[in-house]
Structure formats: structure tokens, C-alpha cells
Batch of 3 targets.
Target 1
Amino acid sequence: MAIITTRPRGTLDKLPDDCVKCRAVENAALDTAAKYGYREIRTPVFEHTELFKRSVGNTTDIVQKEMYTFDDKKGRSLTLKPEGTAPVARAVIENGLLNDALPLKLCYVTNCYRYEAPQSGRYREFSQFGAEVYGADTPLCDAELIALAYDLFNALKMPDDCYKIEVNSIGCPDCRHHYHDALREYYSRHLDALCHDCHERIERNPMRLLDCKSPECGAFKESAPVILDYNCDACNSFFAQFKAGLDALNVPYTVNPRIVRGLDYYTNTVFEFVPKSGAVFGGGGRYNGLLEQLGGAKTPASGFALGIERIISFLDTFGNNTKCGNTPDLYVAALGESAALFTFRIVHELRKREKNAHCDIVGRSVKAQMRYADKIGARYSLVVGDNELQNGSAVLKNMINKDSVEVALNADDIIAQIEPV
């Protein structure tokens, strides 16, 4: 019988082993963020379309080409969120979170949706971990954000020599006004070679020219004017203090003056986490005008987002084991009806004591049960039959080194034997 349908292009089925990897990365991210004082927030999977038009920007590829937008039954335009920052900013304003103690530190794990050309590491449905700070307008805030990400990478055992932290400053709105003029003058000399979209960008937002994915336009990027040459003294000072903060924490970084990021709300600090091969797995920066742009009070803000699937793919490249916390502690095999009821009860008791324990619920032979225990990777096994029930003890086998020990058939004694040293 043929399958009725397949998963939509650009999406993934996350199978059990994949979910273990995702959970490991998510837990490491949330645990690391908690050490820095971040609290988790969750926002809806869809928002009013206007939120992204006003925050991400009408001139970006995300808004122009990549958003999943639809009308609801009352004709209201809604969009599956393509990124996490704007929804969090909206939630901060709407729920009055700025009345809390500042700085306000929030983090999230969420699914996002963009209609992009699927390729390695890029999907139309993907998950992000993000961290956002509101109410802090200092270079050390931005440096601390990168330190958080760097600590997470270390917790995940990412090889230091296989990725770079690249930083830049795109200045304040006044700096960018002069920089836009320089970009227009430069790109106008190559107008005939630019793609159709860049013909519009050159007038509406010339910095988007540097972010164009077209190979024809990318050929002019290396010789284009550099934003650092147009930043004012205040922005240069901010950037210098930001780098000094990273130096103080021994966080390695490289200045890349070509980074502009793909969203319109960034100001001053921008940064990306770049592997030596493969897709950029995250980035962020400062966006002091975002909350005011969305109707809130003028509030400094900064943050970053990481693609969880990209991080997992990066870790897999180097054989890093992100599978953790899902290995069965014990499989209890049963021989006979009385033993089956006993194993059913003892396994339930072990689970209440936080142990990952299994028993037969299929009706297999003991030999088949032991094959199953081996297949699921149980650390220990125990075979219980009538003799074991009568004696009140059984042989506990270490499935890794094959050592055996006799153990009393009660939860306390079993746990004492299977606890990791």
C-alpha cells in the first residue's frame, strides 16, 4: 500500500534519537541562560502580520519573500513567526514587563517558519534558542550576551578552532545615513549588474544590498564601503568598550566589517557565530529602537538567536555526543506469570524513584526480552522467575562490562547497585 502523503518540503520529522539531541541542546541552553539570570518566555506561533513588517522591515527578504502569511476567518492577516525577537518585544510591551526590575532578561526556545530554498542546515520549519535583554544600554551588556553563548558552546563541547565569533558595529541612525549615501554612490556604478530586488533596495535600504543572496550582487560586496569608516566617535567608543568587555572575559572574537545582519531593527553591535564550514548557526546584536517602533516606551535592548538544528548538525560533524539522559538504567525480564506481575510492579516503583526502567509488555520469551534489552541499550538487566521470587533475590548483570552481582528484589537494593559511581 502506497503512503498517502509525505512531509512538506523543507520540514523534518524529528525521530526519537533526534528529539534526544534537541532536548540536550535546549536544556543546555536554558540552563546556561538561567545562570546569567534569564527567565523563559513563550509567545504564540503566529502573530499579526504588521508586527513583522514594522520590526523586521519591509525591505528584508523575510518580509518580502519568506513569511507564511494567511487571513483568518475574519479576514485578519496573520503570520507564522519567522523569528523570535519581535514576538518577545510585543509581549514585553503588551504585558507591562518593563515595570519589573531592569534589566529584564528573557530567553526562549521556539519554532520559526520561513519559505526559503531548503538546503543543508536550512529548513522552512526550524527551532531557535534566543536570549533578550531590555533596559541595559552598555557595551558590557552586549559582551555578556556573547559570553552566554560562548559558555553554551563550551557546555556542548564545540571545538573552539572550528567556529568563529565575528563582531561588527553598524552605528547609530545618524552614522547609517552617511553610510547609505556611500553605498548608493558605489552600487549605482554597477546598477546594470544588480538583481531586480537590489534595484529597489538601493533606494529604500541600501544596507540590504550587502545581505543579498544573489551571486551577481555578491560579487560587489568585497569592494563596497565599510560601515566602520562612517561611524561617529560615540559609536566607535561603544564598539571599543564592547571589545574590551570580551577581552576581559577571554572570549575570542574577530572583527568582520561586512556583517550587517538580515533584519532592520539592529543598531550598533552586531555579531554572528560562524562555523568554518556550513551555515552560520546564530547571531544577534543591539536594537535600541525596536520597542519604540512597536508602540512601547523607548528602551534599549539587545539579544541573539541560535538555530538548534544547525548547532546539532555542527556537533554531529565532529562526532560530539548530544544524546544524554535517555539511556535505560535497567531492564527486568520475567519468566512466568507470577514473575511478569512482579516485574510490572517493581519497574513502576523504580520509575517513581526517578529510574529509567523497562519490563516486558509484549509477551516475549526470556531470550527475546534479553535481545530487546540489548537493543535499547539498557545499562543493567535482571531476570526474574519462580526461583528468584522464592529466594527474594536475582542476578543483576552489567550489560556493558558483563559483570554480575546478586541483588535483593526490592527497589532500595536494586537502586544501590545501578546508581552510577
Target 2
Amino acid sequence: MATQISAHITDVYTKIKDNIAKVIVGKSETVDMLIVSLLSGGHVLLEDVPGTGKTVLIKSLAASVDCTYKRIQFTPDLLPSDITGVNFFNMKKSEFEFVQGPIFANIVLADEINRATPKTQSGLLECMEEIQATIDGKTFKLARPFMVIATQNPVESMGTFPLPEAQLDRFLMKGRMEYPNHGEGVDILARFDRESPLETLTPVVTADELLTAIAELPRVYVCREMMSYITSIVEKTRTYPKVVLGVSPRGALSLMKAAKGYAAIAGRNYVTPDDVKRAAHPVLDHRLTLENTLRIKKNAAYDIIEDILGMVTVPTEAVFEGN
């Protein structure tokens, strides 16, 4: 029974990843991160300089599943109602009608999220955490599956509003695209020489297949020793020098959830320490609040989590596989 659970998830994962590979060159780890987040019901923040393929990757993911997709271009004048929707008065009917905003979709691209004001950014908090939106006192359930993928530019600071800790904590994982190596750069030019392969991409997974995989993922087994390992990692972040705020219990739950996802796409129905280590950086790095002297240092959070992973004793005698 446990093997069948992983088999279905692995099948969905393989179909989506192979389809994305028709457009995206390399970036295997970033693609895995997106798919794991989708299967885990989580959200992703992609941070990198313009032109590295963030939007193309997100569009490729959305085109690979038979779900609705909307894009929101965040700007300083964007209002919360532009995201969630608005009630307007219909003169012909003499009554108010609700017009849904772009948040009412399965996959939502929040492009350049840090260009919007904190008031507008906060309009996503309820949507991302509770999968619902409250407009004028009335609560609307959002479609499932539901995933927000946000992008931001780490270089520009003019006209931007850094995401607060509460907003960052809503993202299950954060990743980067990074520049391609020479060989990948040549392959990109060859692939996009005559036309964009994104234009011909078609869905390979139905919404029902995706929902089934999402429902099965929580059944991936996590032994008590593995839970203790996750907890120890998180606790170390709270006492590490020059870390003002460590990872919250929600971050620990996110780490376990992501580790389950990585185990499932690897074809296993149980979590190992390697799954936890693989999930650690994308889940934990952005949840650390560092002292001002470290905030300007590149990869400071990454180095801290890497150091903590080396400090915490890895379970060796635990029985990872469950019945």
C-alpha cells in the first residue's frame, strides 16, 4: 500500500518534470523544489536577477497541469482589491455584484512582489495561509489546488518594499534560478532559436491526478527519530550566534512537509535524513532573521544552516521505513 502511494506521486512528478524539461534547460533542483511545493500545497518565492527564466519556468509548470493560471504584476499603485476582487454596483440590476480577482486561480504568479506596498502584500496573507479570501466581510473559498509563486529582484532597491517576516514565513520554500553554465547557455540559444517551446506545451497531468497526489503525500511515513532530528535543527537556529529570530514551529512543520515531498518524488514512502537535508536550505534560509552585520553578507543564512546541519547528530539507528 505504501509503495502505491509513492508510485502515484512519482508518476505525477515525472510527467511534470519531463514536460518542463522541454522548455527549461537544466535547473533540475529548482524544478524539483517547485513540484514538491505544488504537491505539498505550499508556495514558493523565486529570487534572482531579471532574465534568468523565473517567469518562463513558472509558466512551464502552469502549462504542464490542467489547472487555471493567472499572473499579477505587482506595482506600487496595486491595491488589495486588484488581487482579491471587488464588489461593484450593477446599475441595470440595482444590486452589488462580486468580480473575482486573479487570486481565484489554481496557480498564481505574483510577479515582482516586492514592488507592491505592504498593504497590498498583506492582501495575500489570508489567501496563502487559509486558502480563502475575505472581501467586504464575506469569505470566499479559493480553488484547489492553490499555489502562489512569487518573484523578486534581489538587486534593485529603488521603489521596492522588502517582504516582512510574516509574509516570508508563508512561503514553504525560497529558491534561485542562478545563471546557466556555458553548455546550458548554448542549449538555451539553440532551443529558442526559431520559436519558443513554451507555446506548444500542453498539460500532462489533470487536476484530479494532482489532487490525488496531494492527498496522498501526508501519508509518507516520518519516524519519531526523524521528527527529533528536524526539531533539533530548528532549535539550533534559535540559539545560533548573530541570529535574532530563529525558525518557528511553522517552519519545522514546513521542513517535515517538504522532506515528505522529496522522499515521495524519490519513490520512497518514508523520510530519510538526506530528504531533510535536501529540504533544509529552501525551507529554512529565508526564515532566519539575522543581525544587521550579517544581512549584507551574501549567503549568510545558507552558511548558518549548513553549519547547523553539520552540528546536529544524524539519526543512524532509526528504522526509517514504516508499515
Target 3
Amino acid sequence: MTQEFNPNHNLTQQIASSVSDILTHIGEDVHRQGLERTPERVGEAFQFLTKGYHEDPEAILRSALFEEDYRQMVVVKDIDFYSLCEHHLLPFFGKAHVAYIPNGKITGLSKIARVVDVFARRLQVQERMTTQIKECIQKTLNPLGVMVVIEAEHLCMQMRGVQKEHAITTTSDFTGAFTRPETREEFLKLIGK
């Protein structure tokens, strides 16, 4: 179940004022019918798209932490995410694949997806986001190892600049047991890579 999002009205108005200035600078009439409420909508949207700054990913994992004597790989794959590139404020989106090998503790599976969302809902670069997810899980669960693979399309690369429409960027990071090639290979087979 998705949590309801309630934007801060004062922040919405502050962002809306700046968006109105931007629209005016590019030659738009902020009072025409189609744009009358656009600054406020952008203000609310940006608060939602960056709500990860106000969420604690470690607390999310700890909220469903269980003692369990399971020491095999736990994989949550194909986690859809949407983020904003910090260089152009354009979206990048794709799938995250996360694995960890428990060391006496497991967490609720949905919590892994929520951690991905927390880091995605910040201004990001894909490389940093990959490492942040890995480090958060490693620090909070202290597993025998963690591996994160992210595959994403970047609109900053597709809509502008080099304009390569079908380019996919893949990043990975890992710790512990995943430093062994055979463990990484098992994970990659499980996610279909």
C-alpha cells in the first residue's frame, strides 16, 4: 500500500514562485490557461520527487527486522524506480536488483524496495544511488554480503546532449560474499543477466 503524500503548502508556494520566473524567462505567459496552475503543480511534484531527503532508510529496514537462521541469498529483483538526475533535473528510471546473504537477521522484503525508493527520491547520480543502497543494507542488517545492480534510462542523455534514445546504463556494487566471482555469478543468473 502506497503512503499518502501531503506537500508543504509554504514550500509549494516558494517553488511555484521560482517556476513562474523560469517560465517567464523562457518566454511563456504564466497567466495563460494551460499554465495558470503549473507552478503550484510543479511545487507539489518536486516535493514528492525529492521526499527521500526526509525519510530514514535505515529506520525502514529496522522496522521489520527479524532474527532468522537463513544464510542463503535473498534477492529482490526488478524494483521499478524513478529519480531525477542532479545535473539537469531530468528523470532517469529503470530497475534495481538487490541481494543480500543474511547473517542471523532478515528484513521484510518490501523494505528493500522502500530503501530503493528513498534513495531514488533525491537528486541523484546512478552510481551514488547504487552505492547508497548497498551501504545502507550492509550497515543496518550486517549481512554476509550485499550486491546491488541498477539498470536505467537517462532522459538527460536521450532528450538532450548526445540524444541516444535506447542507451541503458548499468551500475553495480557489492560487499562481502559477493566479492567471490561465483557468488556474483549466481546473483546475475537469478536476475537473468
